[in-house]
Specification:
This protein is an alpha/beta fold. It has a single domain (about 25-155, about 200-240, about 265-350), classed as Rossmann fold. It has 13 helices and 16 strands. Strand 3, helix 7 and strand 4 form a beta-alpha-beta unit. Helix 4 (about 50-70) packs across helix 5 (about 85-95), helix 8 (about 205-220) packs across helix 9 (about 265-270) and helix 11 (about 290-300) runs antiparallel to helix 12. It is globular and about 60 Å long. It binds S-adenosyl-L-homocysteine (SAH).
Length: about 350
């Protein structure tokens, strides 16, 4: 039993079953508090850790958005869930080519893990950075926000269709461990569903997107959110745990495995009140439009063959549909007066 398992079992014994969202939230805090969980030696690997071109292209994307905002002398550059700080570091290195961008950027990182804050501080030691535990603490003003694999870590609720309609899944505990149990509760706008089907919602994602949308609608800017998930709300159970690059049970070793769920991009788009929504577009398509292949060729020029191969295979991993190119999607939420952001001009806007 992990320390968190003991603590949660005790809490359930005293107060009764807890929602999936409460379980997920407790697990996320304990898990990310461990620190460096990324990369080959960790539990999972993310796009910025696979290829520096990922953060660089996002940096150029931000620079163009900033120019289209009228190149404000001061603006908030916000990253939510920055992990090791690699994406922000690569982003800043690329975006500094736009004169005035770096000088105007007030960098804010939204992060709850003390251990990860330490890693981010080291990665960004050449920049002035402010940390916040919650987006609500970021000051008002024009903002460019990015988040890669942030939404998938936010808590979800799970509802199940039964003979009596919908019920909400909770987590209970006995001597054998944790198990699902059903309690009264129904989702707000459930889709058509067969008996036994599970429907996931995320009040935390809706709340986060509503908050950033209100800020952008008020003060200008755009948000770029990249994650794995589906474009249209649908039933299906997607909550999953990953440890050492292998799936494991969500009740196994809580706090020692990464617990995430697919992002419902339709729900994200619906929560973006007052903004224009672009995408979601498949990550492979979006990176292709931004010229990732060409960037890879430039980067590999004059490098040893082995390095060139690593650069190329990293880019393939990010873009090929069988790898991360199709499941991962990119959505932009922008002030209605902002020009269509890069990588979305090819799609009709919603
Ligand atoms: N963006 C990084 C890391 C993704 S992992 C990358 O692509 O490599 C998820 C990140 O979100 C971690 O930094 C984690 O500590 C942070 N996080 C998770 N839940 C959070 C919450 N509720 N508030 C703030 N940060 C959170």
């Amino acid at each position: 039993m992990t320390a968190l398992a003991t603590e949660l079992a005790e809490r359930i014994r005293q107060d009764g079953p807890i929602s999936i969202a409460d379980y997920m939230s407790a697990v996320a805090d304990a898990y990310y508090a461990r620190g460096d969980v990324f990369g080959v030696a960790g539990d999972f690997i993310t796009a910025p850790e696979i290829s520096q071109t990922f953060g660089e292209l996002i940096g150029l994307w931000c620079a163009v958005v900033w120019q289209n905002m009228g190149a404000p002398k001061s603006f908030h550059l916000v990253e939510c869930g920055p992990g090791r700080g690699t994406l922000m570091k690569d982003l800043l290195r690329a975006a500094q080519r736009a004169p005035g961008f770096l000088a105007g950027a007030q960098i804010h990182l939204v992060e709850r893990s003390q251990a990860l804050k330490g890693m981010q501080r080291a990665a960004l030691r050449n920049h002035t950075v402010t940390w916040h535990e919650d987006i609500a603490a970021v000051p008002d003003g024009p903002m460019i926000l990015v988040g890669n694999e942030f939404l998938d870590a936010l808590p979800i609720r799970q509802f199940q269709k039964t003979g009596d309609g919908w019920s909400e899944r909770h987590v209970t505990a006995d001597q054998r461990g944790f198990a699902f149990t059903l309690r009264e509760g129904a989702p707000e706008n459930p889709p058509a569903a067969n008996m036994g089907a599970v429907f996931e919602t995320s009040p935390a994602i809706v709340d986060f997107v509503s908050q950033i949308s209100a800020r952008i609608a008020r003060s200008g800017g755009a948000a770029l959110l990249i994650d794995y998930g589906h474009g249209v709300s649908a039933t299906g159970e997607t909550l999953q745990a990953v440890k050492k690059h292998k799936p494991c049970g969500i009740f196994e070793t809580p706090g020692e495995a990464d617990l995430t769920a697919h992002v419902d991009f339709q729900a994200v788009a619906q929560a973006a009140n007052g903004l224009k929504v672009y995408g979601p577009v498949a990550q492979g398509t979006w990176l292709g439009r931004l010229g990732i292949k060409l960037r890879g060729v430039q980067l590999a020029k004059g490098k040893p063959a082995e390095t060139a191969r690593t650069i190329e295979s990293g880019i393939r991993r990010l873009t090929e549909p069988e790898a991360m190119g199709a499941l991962f999607k990119v959505i932009a939420l922008a002030h209605p007066t902002l020009a269509t952001p890069d990588g979305f001009q090819q799609d009709a806007e919603r």
